[in-house]
Design a protein that fits this description.
Helix content: 10-25%
Structural class: mainly beta
Number of strands: 8
Radius of gyration: 16 Å
Number of helices: 2
Strand order of the largest sheet: 1-7-3-4-8
Distance between the termini: 37 Å
Largest sheet: 5 strands, antiparallel
Length: 137
């Protein structure tokens, strides 16, 4: 069975402020820039069953460029741990007033993740429910 992982990177408006190109005269926007995209592992049980799903990871970008996951929601609970693990050690760079500022904080960030097997997709209207993960209220 061929397994295809897709990462929905539409969070640019919600999460990632674009960098100005070195040749571009536009200022750097405030916000955070991930140093690398999250890379969740496809849960084996879901892959074997041919299940696809969507998740959203909610987090706060805290001072000293640390990340605090506040909530994970998924259309299928089998994707909760994979999504949480993909973000737990993620690093980023904070910008404020067009300059790097490790003390800048941005609350209520969210990042969608899509899991897809053999081109099956989960309809957008399928509701996500809160994941039950240790240490998260």
């Amino acid at each position: 069975m061929e397994i295809k992982r897709e990462y929905l990177l539409m969070a640019s408006v919600l999460l990632i402020s674009p960098f100005a190109n070195a040749d571009d005269k536009q200022p750097i926007q405030d916000g955070i820039q991930l140093t690398s995209p999250p890379t969740p592992n496809y849960p084996m049980g879901a892959a074997i069953d041919g299940r696809s799903g969507n998740c959203t990871v909610y987090f706060d970008a805290l001072a000293n460029e640390t990340l605090s996951i506040t909530k994970v929601t998924c259309t299928d609970q089998s994707f909760c741990w994979a999504s949480w693990r993909a973000f737990r050690d993620l690093s980023f760079i904070s910008y404020r007033n067009g300059e790097r500022d490790p003390l800048a904080e941005y609350f209520g960030q969210k990042y969608p993740v899509t899991y897809s097997v053999e081109d099956k997709s989960t309809p957008e209207e399928h509701p996500q429910t809160d994941c039950v993960l240790p240490g998260m209220s």
